[in-house]
Amino acid sequence: MAVLELRGLTKRFGGLLVVDGLDLVVREGEIVSLIGPNGAGKTTVFNLISGIFPPDDGDILLEGSSIVRLAGHEIAARGVARTFQTLRVFLNMTVAENVVVAEYARGRVGILRSILGTPAARREARQLRADAEQRLGFFGKRLVGYRFDQPAYSLSYANRRRLEIARAMATGARMLLLDEPAAGMNPAETHEISRLIGRLRDDLGYTILVIEHDMHVVEGISDRVAALDHGVKIAEGSFEEVASDPAVVEAYLGKGDAIAK
Amino acid sequence: MAEIGTDRWVDEVERRRSESGALGRLGQILSRRWLAVFVVVALVYPFVVGGDFGIRVGVNALLLALLALGLNVVVGYAGLLDLGYVAYYGLGAYGYAFLSSDQFGIHAPTLLVVAIVAIVVFLVGALLGQPARRLVGDYLAILTLFFLQAFIELALNLDRLQLPFVDGPLSITGGPNGISGVSPMEILGFRLGQVRDYYFLLLVLVVAVAVGLGNLERSRTGIAWRAIREDTLAAEQMTIPTGALKVIAYATGATIAAVSGTIFAAVQLGVFPQNFTVALLIVVYAALILGGEGSIAGAVLGALIIAMVPELLRTPTGARFLFYGGLFVGSVALLRPWRRLAWVAGGVMAVGVVAKVIVMTLWPAVAAGEGGGLFDRWLIRFDPSAVTLVNVLFVVMIVLVLAAIALRAPWRRDPLIVLAAYTLVLVWENRLVETPSITRQLLFGALLVVLMAVRPYGLLGRRRVEVV
Amino acid sequence: MEFLLQQVVNGLTLGSVYALIALGYSMVYGILKLLNFAHGDVYMVGAFAGYAVLVGLGGPADPRVPLAVLFLLMFLAAMLVSGALGVAIERFAYRPLRNAPRIAPLISAIGVSFFLQNAALLVLGARFRTYGTAKMIDPGTGLHWGPLRISLVRIIVIVSAVLLMVALQVLVKRTRLGKAMRATAIDREAATMMGIDVDTIIIVTFFIGSVLAGAAGVMVGLVFSRVYHFMGFVAGLKGFTAAVIGGIGSIPGAMLGGLFIGFAESFSAAYISSTFQNLIVFLILIAFMLIRPWGLLGTPELVKV
């Protein structure tokens, strides 16, 4: 069953064609990796899906319905959440608040009742906090306990990346868009994040679209891989198929003679 | 030796907390129960101060506190730079005046008037706040600044409207003369005839708003606002309807300002365009920033300080207390060790004595001013006619103070400090003490600059990490 | 017809003044992303500096030097004093705040503004001072060309403003210093890595902007005669409006914006209503902010996600 479907997705910035007629299907419970050299348009695809700007042509279907005209927060509420290549955690808010805030759409208590501090409002606040703690527990003991109420800027880089994923999960999404989740991590952390992404699919049933440069990670987690270059999909299939595709090799490494030198 | 992989810092947090000592404990209690302390002090205040003037100062302080709290929602929570905020204060005041005076012959019951004003201003704020959805930072600031200017222009000029079907010019806002003869408030049969009544009404409101905002801060709306302030784009991607929430923050702040405005109009028994200036906007911002934006206690504290300290400057005695007190505290804090402080103080007096002797010998007429007491030996009192000389000294003083700040090497700096301090006291005693209204503004301006340089986050604000 | 031409001349005169003030705002914003609210008071100080020279050399009634020399000295004095003041403000009120939250320099700027206005009030009192231009130049002298009448004073103002703006353009576009200024405005950090002394560039920017404001102050004194301690507020506000409408951060934008506002004010005062002339200018700005916030010659900011 297709969770996400991109049909002929196209986007231009001024005269630059960044995404060119992209077709892609992501099925439920799959992990699909999006690879390609820098500037291939991968993050732009994420931005189009999550609603930061609209496509110039083509369609994006989430569980069969088009989400192209929706605002970012509506798309997120429909079940697609993402992380960012440049890591955009809310630095001056605590770890707990980062996760709780993502559950905004699922809160029921209105502003008036919040102001008055009714029992319902307080109950909901406690519930949200407990939920947040449970979600963060998925990542081991690192983000719970003492760290729970510390500002996010006090976290290490790897912990911030984990927090960002937890925050995306807290939106109640069923599909995650992870933009270079292993960027800047050492081999041990990279290994751990690969296993984590696998567990997200196996234990929690997420459908995941990943942008990644580290081929070990891609190989380890992907059900399918799609390769992009200059906005066009140049290969799709299993990791072995795509990795050995000559067009992909050329996109990354250039034409034959360049390697020999 | 700790094992590799354990987090000792985290494990030792309890030990650190229990070691903070008595003063630390007092600080913790104060920060939780500050509102109770505030209420107690505020209840006692009118009886300590007595007299109409003191209570009016209190009323101003509480009005400023309300305004700062409202601005805190817009700036501190949602991070919107609203430079037109005072226009809503004005809208509230004029709204009350429209419905409770002879301007249109309407004298509606107070609670109804306040309710109408609150609702109307909320809607106006929701409308005018729409640009906040799209406009970024500085552009929004500029737009709102001009909302305020437009408001002031309208208030000043909507008194000579020539409408085709009405005889004679129609006055809506009363123009530069405003609207006088506004009726006092009457709540549940009780007529608020005295300033003291409004003081207690405002106290109740400040507490109510502080509590309400405190609840809001911890609710999902409050956390969502802070996320919007941190990173609007990321917040939007995390299911937060940023556009709608920004507008709600803006409108909420506007409504709080408007309700304060109604009380202001009732206390003043009138409303005039001169009440709502950019200067007032700055005062509200100063109160908020001094206390630390984003902090409810800070907003109240900042407002109290900004409203009350200038009152000390009204009498020469009070002003001198503040000035020399500040000078003393500043010197002790900055001039270390004690020997250096002694040198500088001695130097100032020495310079003074020498200068006085020279001036009295060469130009006795100039130094013929009156005044005695402590300073007589070493301070020149200028004759009232030596105006230009004092003016020049004023400029020289500024240059010396700036130079003293700019230079680093102690052997170059200290003589400058001596000269700067001497001219400072000279100009103070000979001119500034006598013009309290101007001096107050001068000190306010200087305070803002110094405050930003020293503590840009305010007294109770928390240090923020800004991603550029 | 004569009336219309008169408004055009008025618009040009006002526009030149606003353009000079707007340039200071735009240049500083371009480099520091700071709205320098104290700029209007620098202009005011310039006007008074010119006044001081005027009075010091015999005043409007009996000048001790030929008029041309007198005017030149007034301009020089105003420009130097304003320039020095602008540099001092940068050094003491803004430089310590380079890394502080965005709102801190704004508050500091306002503190400086309060201080300057009240210092002027303290030193000079609340009375207006007049340049008394009519006593120095007979109001009738000027250009008469058919229905067109421009008084000599206005010619002086417009010509000086144009000369200053041309000089600025040459500086910015043709000199190495100008190139460094442009580079710093685009990316401050990269500029430091290219060997540009950014602190000096910032000082120069403030100096130039303030010099222009000082010149504008003298011009206003010559044309409108009255100078007073509060004059920086409204002129600053309108100069700021001009900078924003033209595209804040853009030098040609500031010039264009200044002319725009000058003409808008003249024509609305003459043809619509002089009561509401300020309001109309403010409404124009509000409209711009809603429709085209980056101004006439600015470019919308692209944010890379």
Describe the structure.
- The complex is a heterotrimer of chains A (261), B (468) and C (305).
- Chain A has helices at residues 42-50, 72-77, 95-101, 111-116, 119-137, 157-170, 187-202, 215-221, 239-244, 246-253, 256-260, and strands at 2-13, 16-27, 31-35, 57-62, 65-66, 80-82, 175-179, 207-211, 224-229, 232-237.
- In chain A, strand 9 and strand 10 (232-237) form a beta hairpin.
- In chain A, helix 3 (95-101) crosses helix 5.
- A six-stranded mixed sheet of chain A has the order 6-7-8-3-9-10, with helices on both faces. A four-stranded antiparallel sheet of chain A has the order 2-1-4-5, with helices on one face.
- Chain A has two domains: 2-89 and 172-260, Rossmann fold, CATH 3.40.50.300; 95-154, no CATH class.
- With 261 residues, chain A is α/β, with parallel strands linked by helices.
- By secondary structure, chain B is mainly α.
- Chain B has two domains: 21-312, ABC transporter involved in vitamin B12 uptake, BtuC (Orthogonal Bundle), CATH 1.10.3470; 318-434, no CATH class.
- Chain B is 69% helix and 3% strand.
- By secondary structure, chain C is mainly alpha-helical.
- Chain C has a single domain (2-291), classed as ABC transporter involved in vitamin B12 uptake, BtuC, CATH 1.10.3470.
- In chain C, 73% of the residues lie in helices and 4% in strands.
- Chain C has helices spanning 2-32, 39-56, 67-94, 103-124, 133-136, 152-174, 176-186, 188-193, 198-224, 231-247, 251-272, 277-291; strands spanning 129-130, 142-145, 148-151, 226-227.
- In chain C, strands 1-4 form a two-stranded antiparallel ribbon. In chain C, strands 2-3 form a two-stranded antiparallel ribbon.
- In chain C, strand 2 (142-145) and strand 3 form a beta hairpin.
- In chain C, helix 1 (2-32) packs across helix 10, helix 1 (2-32) packs antiparallel against helix 11 and helix 6 packs antiparallel against helix 9.
- The mean pLDDT of chain C is 88.
- Classes of the chains: A alpha/beta (261), B mainly alpha (468), C mainly alpha (305).
